[in-house]
Amino acid sequence: MEFYSLLEKIVQQNETHAKWLNTLSFMENAGARKISACEHPTEVSLIQLKHAAEEHRHAYYLKKQILKISFEFCKTYNSNELLASIATRQYLHSLDMKACKYLQQVFQLTKEELKYAAYLFVTYAIEVRADELYPVYQEILTKTSSKIMVKSIILEEEGHLEEMINQLNEFSADWKEHAEIILTIEKELNDQWINAIAKEVLELKYV
Predict the structure, then answer these.
(1) How far is 198 from 78, CA to CA, in rounded Å?
(2) At what angle do helices 175-203 and 151-171 cross, to 10 degrees?
(3) Are 35 and 48 in contact (CB under 8 A)?
């Protein structure tokens, strides 16, 4: 199912919409935790702290948006409160693992260097995806006159992408060719994730 059509279906039904917001919140939270896990024990840049803090805030903001739908839905990140919970939980972890494997092959890095390289390339791929996902979601929210809003996240994700590009330019002159490989890996995982959500939404006849 095409992504736009899928989101149109998701926002039509309150519980499904709440689970979608919760799923996005889970992923933002997982991203924040991943950024923190990639930190060097002492050499932590201001920008890395900023990213972790903002991703945590996005997770909080999305979770709070659920309250506009209902106070009863999605109080935890338990599997029954997420859409396609298995694919959702695997997505970022799989991207991180596959990216690390590739980066180690091409750059031969120490453990700490690999953590930092993974932070750069994985976060870049996630920001590219966010720059596609959130505007489509906001367009549907606007079209349906929803109380839910993600405009503030869109602005911050655009800023993150610029910051990641600046850091990647410092990391390697030929970062773009390596980023293309990571983006290809991410697209495959994202397709699997979206397909899993579509299958669940259709199977459970939420709409």
Answers:
(1) 19
(2) 150
(3) yes
CB-CB contact of 168 with 120 (8 Å): yes
CB 1 within 8 A of CB 192: no
The 10s digit of each residue's pLDDT in 118-134 is 999 999 999 999 999 99
Q: Which positions ≥6 away from 59 have C-beta within 8 Å? A: 25, 26, 28, 29, 32
For the chain, residues with pLDDT lower than 70 are 1, 204-207
The pLDDT tens digits for 78-129 are 999 999 999 999 999 999 999 999 999 999 889 888 999 999 999 999 999 9
Quick one: pLDDT at residue 205?
A: 59
Amino acid at 164: M
Q: Which distant-in-sequence residues (6+ apart) come within 8 Å of 58 by Cβ?
A: 25, 28, 32, 153, 156
